[in-house]
Amino acid sequence: MTAAAQVLGLDRASDHLAVRWLGIDIGGTTTDVVAIASDGEVLASGQAATRPGAGLVPGTLEAIAALDVELDALVGVGIGVPGQVDRETGTVRLAVNLGLGAAPVPLAREVKDVLGARVVLENDVRAAALGAHRVLAPEAEVLVFVGLGTGVAAGVVIDGRPHRGAHGLAGEIGHVVIDPDGEPCGCGAQGCLETVISGSAVRRRWGVEVAAAGHALAVAAAAGDTRAQGILDDVVAHLDLMVQWLAHTYGADVIVLGGGLGRLGDPLLVPLRHRLRERAGRSDVAARVVGPERVWCAPAEIPLGAVGAAAVADAPIRPIEGVAIRLARGPEGRDGLPASIKT
Question: Which pTM value belongs to this model?
Answer without folding.
Answer: 0.86
